[in-house]
Amino acid sequence: MTEEKQSLSKWILIVSGLFAVMELAVSVQLSFFPQTMLETVDLTAKGVDYLVYMWDARQFALGVIFAVATWKKSIPMLTIAYIFFFVMFVGDFVIGILQKENSLIISAGVMSVISSAMIFVINKRK
Fold first, then answer.
1. What is the reported pLDDT for 4?
2. 19 vs 1: CA distance, rounded Å
3. Which of the four pLDDT bands, split at 50, 70 and 90, describes residue 49?
4. Residues 8, 75: contact at Cβ < 8 Å?
5. In Å, how far from its chain's centre is CA 42?
């Protein structure tokens, strides 16, 4: 385990920590101010709150996973977190295409590239 901790560069830990903070911030935003993130959604419609809470739980879980993996400086944990991140953003990319929402397509595409690059960089150092 000592070898793994020494093999991760500080910039990898900083980026991973920023992703943890970003995911936790999105979770807090969804919990307390969902209208700021879902401007075009009728939050009073039946069942919408359930979907918001599910999205909130996903973001919170991912933020905690990134935080723990970064804190422990664990290559396997960070790899799994970035794989999840990659799959999540590929899904968002497909949703963006289906919804014809260019901002989602661009952001999900960029984040897919970043997460796949992080997977490569983290595992290259093994």
1. 45
2. 23
3. confident
4. yes
5. 25
Whether 12 contacts 122, CB under 8 Å: yes
Place of tokens 């960070």: 78
Task: Give dist(CA 88, CA 103) in Å, integer.
Answer: 16
pLDDT at 120: 94
Q: Read off the amino acid at residue 53.
A: Y
C-alpha–C-alpha distance, residues 63 and 110, integer Å: 19
pLDDT tier, 1 (very low <50, low <70, confident <90, very high otherwise) = very low
Separation of alpha carbons 121 and 117, rounded Å: 6
In this structure, what are the phi and psi dihedrals at residue 81, rounded to the nearest 5 degrees?
-60, -45
For 124, the token pair is 């290259």
pLDDT one-digit tens code per residue, 62-119: 999 999 999 999 999 999 999 999 999 999 999 999 999 999 999 999 999 999 999 9
CA-to-CA separations, 86 to 1, 2, 38, 41, 89, in angstroms, rounded:
25, 27, 23, 26, 5
Nearest to 71 by CA among 16, 3, 1: 16
